[in-house]
Amino acid sequence: MPVFTQTRALQIKSYSLQGLNSIKHIKHVHAALLRLGLNHDSFLLNRLLRYSFEIGETNYPCLVFSQIEETNIILWNTMIRGLVSNNRFKESIDFYHSMRENGFLPNGLTFPFVLKTCVGLLDFQVGSKMHTLVLKMGFNHDVFVDTGLVNFYAGFGHIECAFKVFADVPEKNMETWTPIINEYIRVGKRKEAIDMFRRLLEMGVRPDSFTLVRILSACIQIGDLRSGEW
Fold this sequence. Notes:
Number of helices: 13
Order of helices and strands: HHHHHHHHHHHHH
Helix content: 55-70%
Shape: elongated
Number of strands: 0
Largest sheet: none
Low-confidence stretches: none
Keywords: Repeat
GO molecular function, one term: RNA binding
Protein name: Pentatricopeptide repeat-containing protein
Pfam family, one: PPR_2
InterPro entries: PPR_At4g14850-like_plant (IPR046960), PPR_rpt (IPR002885), TPR-like_helical_dom_sf (IPR011990)
Mean pLDDT: 88
């Protein structure tokens, strides 16, 4: 590779494709990667896919991915995540199945987004199979995966299953608590939601503003203003 090309390649890597905010810009950079022979650089390709999804573009990253000769689990995860984040649930689950057909196993970053896809598709059966696979592969103590399972069961209104997974999460964060609290409020169990919120505070977890507003509303609805004083 000529010195100029090497220098240009290093420049692209150093900027990590930051600031791509239009599909025109993304296509321009992709064309540059092809010219410079960087179309096999999974780091740059992954960034390209991510930025495409972040601006709401879904067709172009699918085209880019289809042209990648050697994929890896990182690229597959980016596609699954990007599609579900743009509410393209059918395409997201199709990518998951294609990933498995190509010999790749899911990891801790795959499961939460596939589970979110199942909620979007109202496909409880596939989500249940995901839970079985989580247990089989030993990801059941991964907080990211567990949070995905809690959200999955809460999304289908199975509060008992959601709470069972929640109870076994070793290190709970705000994302783990939120679906449980929200589901209790949704089904009218406001006292249980408030009790869960107290536990959250006792464990030193800082609530987000959305959950705080919902809890204060629950306190007002049950006429327990004193519980709203923390």
